[in-house]
Amino acid sequence: MSNRTFSLDEAQLLLPILESLLRQAINGKKLIEDVDNELQETAHRVFLNGGTLLNVVHLARRKAQREKAIRHVKDALAEIDATGVQVKDLDIGLLDFPCKVEGEVLLLCWKLGEATINNWHSTSEGFSSRKPIDARIANAGKKRSK
Fold this sequence. Notes:
This protein has helices at residues 8-49, 56-83, 135-138; strands at residues 86-89, 94-101, 104-111, 119-122, 131-132. By secondary structure, it is of the alpha+beta class.
């Protein structure tokens, strides 16, 4: 896990790239789940029928798609992790950006579909404890001009 922290502005700048990677991971996860369901339904049908003819080429193609999707999901999540951003919930697209405010690390919290990062929570809290970003957090990490 990275020790990197972000200012609000730095986190906002990364959003377009992270959103794209997050969507890739979510879409890949959905494909994996779809293939898993299809294979499970096929296995169930074979069991109930005591055997059946299968389209082996189709099933092999679907399994290959699943394996490729697994690699894409892992790669997308690894890229996000490499930035220092934390994926908290892939199903809803939830990301946390560590941010140092007055010596304390807080988490800027963003959910897929939100236009900007507007919320934060402490490291011991989660999504349900989000609070609106205030001036103290918005200005953390900015260079002060003299």
